[in-house]
Design a protein that fits this description.
The protein has twelve helices and no strands. It is an all-alpha fold. It starts with 20 loop residues before the first helix and ends with a helix.
């Protein structure tokens, strides 16, 4: 039996730091510094989607606009609502909901759909997340034209409170990032999550005041009060309120902001946990 002594003792193997919070935060920061890459990729996604189309990205605006106006007129008539106020309400609901919905669904596929880039380009994982968020911002900008047109036809006077839409949308962006991180990484490992999210998002759409108004439930009867409480359990209701309300001139109660801020904080804690533990496994799972 040979004994290794003195300087012949082999060094201890290096401990990998791939599963540390520091590496996860570094990935997020490095991804931001690589903004030229994800800005280019996000814009190319839009161009590729409407390649050889006569109207190009304008189809984004047309599709959303036709749906919002048709639903606003239909449900305004069914619920006996004033079209002058109800159509802007529905239009904004569709615009913000599309951003939320596509951030969730596209975020869940962000890594599985970019398998080639992930394996060929040595870029931070967060680059693909920022690419999805940037693409949704481009689509949102196209859809915002619809509200401007509706505003010209049915003028509103939101006042200075409309400026609250900027911090509200900043929270939207922060939430879209953590959603893409969490659902994107988990869906790469468990592919059924994407299908589950598609079904869940469709269900939440009908449970959220988008094509109907929560004000119609806020009467003094016990039954209506119970229904309103059920609506308020849905976090999407509060996300829409903090962004849509200021543009319609509504006073937004603080508890809506508190719930959105709480969901944002919880989501980012979850995202940091996922980045810490599973970020390095993404290239092996795709």
């Amino acid at each position: 039996m040979s004994v290794v002594v003195g300087d012949d003792v082999p060094p201890a193997p290096a401990v990998s730091d791939s599963r540390t919070l520091r590496r996860g935060l570094a990935d997020l920061a490095q991804g931001l510094r690589t903004h030229e890459l994800w800005l280019h990729l996000g814009w190319q996604d839009i161009r590729q989607r409407y390649r050889r189309s006569v109207l190009g990205p304008l189809w984004i605006t047309i599709a959303t606009g036709v749906t919002a106006v048709a639903m606003g007129l239909l449900y305004g008539e069914l619920f006996d609502q004033d079209i002058k106020t109800f159509l802007p309400y529905v239009t904004l609901g569709f615009i913000f909901w599309n951003f939320i919905q596509m951030s969730i669904l596209d975020g869940a596929e962000v890594f599985s759909k970019n398998e080639g880039l992930i394996k060929q380009i040595p870029a931070p994982v967060s680059v693909h997340v920022y690419r999805v968020v940037w693409r949704q911002l481009i689509i949102f900008a196209h859809n915002l034209v619809i509200f401007v047109i509706v505003l010209i036809v049915f003028p509103q006077d939101p006042g200075w409170g409309a400026l609250l839409v900027f911090p509200a949308f900043a929270l939207y962006i922060l939430n879209s990032v953590w959603v893409a991180i969490v659902f994107g990484i988990l869906s790469t490992r468990f592919r059924d999550i994407g299908q589950l999210l598609t079904t869940s998002v469709q269900l939440v759409f009908f449970m959220t005041p988008i094509i109907w108004s929560a004000d119609s439930l806020s009467s003094t009867t016990h039954e209506s009060s119970s229904r309103l409480k059920i609506v308020e359990i849905n976090p999407m209701f509060h996300y829409l309120e903090v962004a849509r309300g200021p543009l319609l001139g509504n006073d937004i109660e603080f508890y809506h902001w508190a719930i959105v801020l709480g969901c944002t904080a919880f989501g980012w804690l979850l995202a940091l946990f996922v980045m810490r533990n599973y970020r390095a496994r993404v290239p092996y799972w795709v």
